[in-house]
Write a structure and sequence with these properties.
Organism: Rhizobium fredii (Sinorhizobium fredii)
Helix content: under 10%
Largest sheet: 4 strands, antiparallel
CATH superfamily of the largest domain: RNA polymerase II/Efflux pump adaptor protein, barrel-sandwich hybrid domain
CATH class of the largest domain: Mainly Beta
Function: This protein is a component of the acetyl coenzyme A carboxylase complex; first, biotin carboxylase catalyzes the carboxylation of the carrier protein and then the transcarboxylase transfers the carboxyl group to form malonyl-CoA.
CATH topology of the largest domain: OB fold (Dihydrolipoamide Acetyltransferase, E2P)
Order of helices and strands: HEEEEEEEEEE
Number of domains: 2
Number of helices: 1
GO cellular component, one term: acetyl-CoA carboxylase complex
Oligomer: single chain
Structural class: mainly beta
Pfam families: Biotin_lipoyl
Number of strands: 10
CATH architecture of the largest domain: Beta Barrel
Pathway: Lipid metabolism; fatty acid biosynthesis
Strand order of the largest sheet: 3-10-8-5
């Protein structure tokens, strides 16, 4: 099963009311679950690989504005955001860093597939909307390049 098909299935389950989807092809079985009913306030962060609603990000006094089109870096798929290349490492970028086209900004992990998100334009990182370890939706703004 190709990666694009898996991404499409993940997005479908994330948007729909389907609680679980199992698909098999050529001996490969993919199971995607969206178990929103078992989450409680005491368990705000679901296990990795689990599909669940995205919790609101507490950004303190930061404005919750959406940047103009062309400046926003969006999540390519539903998954868990990783701001660093591996645990304990320095994040790829911080607010204020100047990036070049094609530079790695973060990783979105979906079903143990790591999707590198790269800069589509050069400029400074003016705002970061999602935090490390947060589940993000496909198309959700992750950061802004000024």
């Amino acid at each position: 099963m190709d990666l694009e098909t898996i991404r499409t299935l993940i997005e479908f389950v994330g948007r729909s009311g389907v609680s679980e989807l199992v698909v098999g092809e050529n001996g490969t079985i993919v199971r995607i679950s969206n178990d929103r009913s078992k989450r409680t306030a005491a368990d705000p962060k679901p296990q990795r690989g689990r599909q669940a609603e995205t919790p609101a990000v507490d950004q303190g006094d930061r404005p919750q504005t959406q940047p103009a089109d062309g400046r926003t870096v969006k999540a390519p798929v539903f998954g868990v955001l990783h701001r660093a290349p591996n645990p304990g490492a320095r994040p790829f970028v911080e607010e204020g860093d100047v990036v070049e086209v094609g530079q790695s900004l973060c990783i979105v992990e979906a079903m143990k597939v790591f999707n590198t998100v790269s800069a589509h334009r050069a400029g400074p990182i003016t705002q970061i909307f999602a935090s490390d370890g947060q589940e993000v939706e496909a198309g959700q703004p992750l950061m802004e390049i000024g």
